[in-house]
Amino acid sequence: MQITDVRVRKVEKEGKMKAVVSITIDDEFVVHDIKVIEGEKGLFIAMPSRKGSNNEYRDIAHPINSDTRERIQSIILQKYEEAFAEVPEE
Hints:
By secondary structure, this protein is α+β, with helices and mostly antiparallel strands. It has one helix and six strands.
């Protein structure tokens, strides 16, 4: 599995959510609405989720194992940092 495209959209309002991301896997499958969130220990991703009838959120799509999750998170956060790196002032 290769992540072949990452599209990052910055969230303009103040808060913990910093961006919403879409990834393309193997140029064939897209996952939208992955959130980049600033937590106490730094940035992390939250997979797309939906609120159920019991008012709890459940992931709609998610990696099966922690290695895959870490790989996806690493790529997304790298692209996020590249997209919003501060340009040094002259």
